[in-house]
Design brief:
Blueprint: H1 21-30, H2 35-41, H3 45-48, E1 50-53, E2 56-59, H4 67-80, H5 82-90, E3 117-118, E4 121-122, H6 124-143, E5 156-160, H7 167-175, E6 185-189, H8 194-201, E7 209-214, H9 221-235, H10 243-246, E8 247-251, H11 254-260, E9 267-269, H12 286-292, H13 294-313, H14 320-334, E10 339-345, H15 352-364, E11 382-385, H16 396-401, E12 408-415, H17 421-440, H18 444-453, H19 458-468, E13 476-483, H20 486-507, H21 518-531, H22 545-557
Parallel strand pairs: 5-6, 5-7, 7-8, 8-9, 10-11, 10-12, 12-13
Antiparallel strand pairs: 1-2, 2-13, 3-4
The structure holds 6-O-phosphono-beta-D-fructofuranose (F6P).
Residues 162-165, 215-217, 220, 223, 276-277, 362, 514, 517 line the site of 6-O-phosphono-beta-D-fructofuranose.
Length: 558
């Protein structure tokens, strides 16, 4: 029995953009392919469907693709305008149409002095000036020459931010752990849940703690509440005039930073053309620069730039971000896969899935086209995952024998930065084994032989057989990094940023706004005032009975 596990797509030509039709036809054929057979039929498959770029290696051979699939997918990418929009992004055009903004995070990682114009003005001098500011400050903290109010050096840095103002620094600091300076502890406070600030502050001394208030807008409720709570906590020990030694800000909003009481000389600026989820390359990366030093931070930027150069120059057929985007798009668009697993087999990359969740889902979780029409095709899948090999003992069962098609990106690092070679070999073995198992599966004949060897009788074999068969034929990509370094982490993040960009173009959506998060923010503001037990219950807003009931129960308990 070969079990087809790619649902044969149905042709919905009335809702599909006409450019998608050749691929939709082709997908009907592809749904009949078995990956095992594609490999058996072509000894050169791995070489053909893999490539090196900017120090990363990308194996996409375990996908339901052949030469024709790739030709059709890249033809579609061209027809949808991937190349022209890519060039428009790099040249500072306002491609974020709903906010009338340029999308220029790539300028932050361009080599010093590169000519990049935004609305006719060079931006590289401003970028370099902030990098110098970061360099000076991070050196002062790292060398111990920045003194707190008692004259002691800083030992603990608390980054207060959320979303892009938290996930980027938190993820990269974890990923670059071996490059971090001993004796400096980084903490990331994002949740408005007071348990988090309580847990972090309870272990700290105000005299040796630095707070970085990181917020592009400097208005985000969670961040501002935590920032004010941290300020009150500090003032239990230090004086108002000591605040400047212990609070710095990263923001685009100078007025709000001033109003909070932070010395403007301790504000690290960035610009509205840097989206929150693309801001790790900006001053939002300050905690990272403090942890690993400015030289490593610049290496990280150089890694991002190396991927930019590849993305701008390689033909679509040999372009890593484009191919990563197209393979994901293929399953999302034509085979109904609603989620995509990110499986980094490296403990220090454990936050990467959360980081990519924001990057992909906030960018491409949209239902309206760039020109304001309702989208008639599915956009971004759910992105999820955790570090391997833990997931194998938790949710991989569903990948192997569940009913959904879930493409996987395996990410592995070939050289370890620890002295436990046996563990490293086992980690890589598990990573490669999972992609092989998902692809191959185990058929009835193989299960039968195995059970016969265990001396089970025919009746026992018949009963167990359906449970022991793995259908296989499940797609995955594998990305290999030689070593986890600031440079390679830079290339990896930029790879995914451009993947998201390409998919956004394929879906014809604006990947750079996030209006969908606004409604909840507004309603939370209203409900906050109703939770105030001094307010009169039920008068400020008309809610549904569920929301009213929940508010009432909370008021009683608080
Ligand atoms: O609510 C979503 C969001 O705007 C993200 O896009 C952003 O990264 C996060 O909130 C934090 O925003 P800010 O840096 O302005 O505090």
């Amino acid at each position: 029995m070969t079990e087809p596990n790619l649902n044969a797509p149905t042709l919905q030509s009335e809702t599909l953009p006409p450019q998608f039709l050749p691929l939709a036809q082709h997908a009907i054929q592809a749904s009949k392919w078995q990956l095992r057979e594609l490999f058996a039929d072509d000894a050169n498959r791995f070489n053909k469907f893999s490539l090196d770029a900017a120090g990363l290696f990308f194996d996409f051979s375990k996908n339901h693709i052949n030469d024709e699939t790739l030709a059709l997918l890249t033809e579609l990418a061209r027809a949808r305008g991937v190349e022209s929009l890519r060039d428009a992004m790099f040249s500072g055009e306002h491609i974020n149409v709903t906010e009338d903004r340029a999308v220029l995070h790539t300028a932050l990682r361009a080599p010093a002095g590169a000519s990049i114009k935004l609305d006719g003005q060079e931006v590289s001098a401003d970028i370099e000036a902030v990098l110098q500011q970061i360099s000076k400050f991070s050196h002062q903290i790292r060398s111990g020459s920045w003194h707190g109010y008692t004259g002691k050096s800083i030992t603990d840095i608390v980054n207060i931010g959320i979303g892009g103002s938290d996930l980027g620094p938190a993820m990269t600091c974890a990923a670059m752990r071996p490059f971090s300076q001993d004796g400096l502890r980084l903490h990331f406070l994002s949740n408005v849940d007071g348990h988090e600030i309580d847990a972090i502050l309870s272990g700290l001394s105000a005299a040796t703690t630095l707070f970085i208030i990181a917020s592009k807008t400097f208005t985000t409720q969670e961040t501002m509440l935590n920032a004010h709570a941290a300020r009150r906590w500090f003032l239990q020990y230090g004086q108002t005039q000591d605040l400047a030694k212990h609070f710095v800000a990263v923001s685009t909003n100078t007025a709000a930073v001033k109003e909070f009481g932070i010395d403007i000389t301790n504000m690290f600026p960035f610009w509205d053309w840097v989206g929150g989820r693309y801001s790790i390359w900006s001053a939002i990366g300050l905690p990272l620069a403090i942890a690993v030093g400015i030289d490593n931070f610049r290496e990280f930027l150089a890694g991002g730039h190396a991927m930019d150069t590849h993305f701008r120059n390689a033909p679509l057929e040999k372009n890593m971000p484009v191919l990563l985007a197209l393979t994901g798009f293929w399953y999302r668009q034509f085979f109904g896969s609603a989620s995509h697993l990110i499986a980094p087999y490296h403990h220090d990359l454990q936050l990467l899935p959360s980081y990519l969740q924001q990057l992909e889902m906030e960018s491409n979780g949209k239902r309206t086209t760039r020109d304001g029409q309702p989208l008639t095709i599915p956009s971004a899948p759910v992105i999820w995952g955790s570090a391997g090999s833990n997931g194998q003992h938790a949710y991989f069962q569903l990948l192997h024998q569940g009913t959904d098609l879930i493409p996987v990106d395996f990410i592995a690092v070939l050289k370890a930065a620890h002295p436990y070679p046996d563990q490293h070999k086992a980690l890589l073995a598990n990573c490669f084994a999972q992609s092989e198992a998902l692809m191959r599966g185990k058929n009835e004949a193989e299960v039968k032989t195995e059970l016969q060897e265990k001396k089970l009788n025919a009746q026992q074999i018949d009963a167990l057989l359906p449970h022991r068969v793995f259908p296989g034929n499940k797609p995955s990509n594998t990305l290999l990094l030689e070593k986890l370094t600031p440079f390679s982490i830079g290339t990896l993040i930029a790879l995914y940023e451009h993947k998201v960009f390409v998919q956004g173009v394929l879906w014809n959506i604006n990947s750079f706004d996030q209006w969908g998060v606004e409604l909840g923010k507004v309603l939370a503001g209203r409900i906050l005032s109703e939770l105030d037990t001094n307010s009169v219950p039920g008068v400020s807003e008309n809610h549904d009975s569920s929301t009213t009931g929940l508010i009432a129960r909370a008021r009683i308990a608080m």
